[in-house]
Amino acid sequence: MADINGVLLEDGTVLKVPPPEVSRFNALFAPGQAIAALGIERVNVAGKVVEVTTIGASPEHLQSIP
Known about the structure:
It is a single chain. The protein has 66 residues and is mostly beta strands. It has one helix spanning 19-22, and strands at residues 6-8, 14-16, 36-44, 47-56, 63-64. A hairpin with a 5-residue loop joins strand 1 (6-8) and strand 2. The N and C termini lie far apart (24 Å).
């Protein structure tokens, strides 16, 4: 079984999160949930990927990802 390492947003953006942290923020990844994230953005022909460094339900509630 493969580890989950991110989520796909409605706009096609992928938020890449280290597998151990996915379970920590699992509630944020449910369909329809609001999510805020900061990180390193990479854009290419395949789309946009953000390697997340902080994440939360809103910009006021961000938590760091080690």
